[in-house]
Each structure stands twice: as structure tokens, then as C-alpha cells.
Amino acid sequence: MCAAPKQGQKLPAGVDVEKETVLTGQVLDATGNPVAGAFVRLLDGTGEFTAEVVASGTGDFRFFAAPGTWTVRALSPAGNGEITVSPDANGVFDQDITVAK
């Protein structure tokens, strides 16, 4: 079993989104339903593994990163999927991942 932290929709208290870059979203299946328990990985611009979390019961995930180019990859029994996110400043960047077999 993976020791990645469970995720939720709310940001922790004290997070200053003017000073932090937050990558967030929801893992969805091909019909738009949330995929709970998906392993969501953060890869840097060179494709190197950086972090992993487990999507919440509603498919939510969250990473604290830095401006730059990131790949967010979801792996689950419902299928796999990935997105590229390129935040150029601090703030919350919300983008969902659709998985398919």
C-alpha cells in the first residue's frame, strides 16, 4: 500500500496562494464520474518523478509545486490519464484528468 497522503478539496489553513503554486483537480472516468483512490503522480519538466498522492473519495488531488511545466499522471483500475500544466506564476491552477483504459 502506498503511503501517499489522502487529498481533499479545501486548502490547508494558512496557505497563501499569492506565495504558493497549487496544482489541483479531480480524476474523472470517461463518463465524468470521480475516480476515488487513483494514484496521482507529479512529474517535473524532464519527466522525473517528484511526488505522489492518492485521490480523495471524490477524485480530488492537490500538489504544491513551483511555476514551470509539470505532468500530472493518474493511475487507477478505471484507466490512466495525464495532463500537462504550465503555471507561470503563483496561485491555484485547477485542471481535471480524465482516465481511460
From TrEMBL:
<dbReference type="InterPro" id="IPR008969">
    <property type="entry name" value="CarboxyPept-like_regulatory"/>
</dbReference>
<protein>
    <submittedName>
        <fullName>DUF1416 domain-containing protein</fullName>
    </submittedName>
</protein>
<dbReference type="Pfam" id="PF07210">
    <property type="entry name" value="DUF1416"/>
</dbReference>
<dbReference type="InterPro" id="IPR010814">
    <property type="entry name" value="DUF1416"/>
</dbReference>
<keyword id="KW-1017">Isopeptide bond</keyword>
<keyword id="KW-0832">Ubl conjugation</keyword>
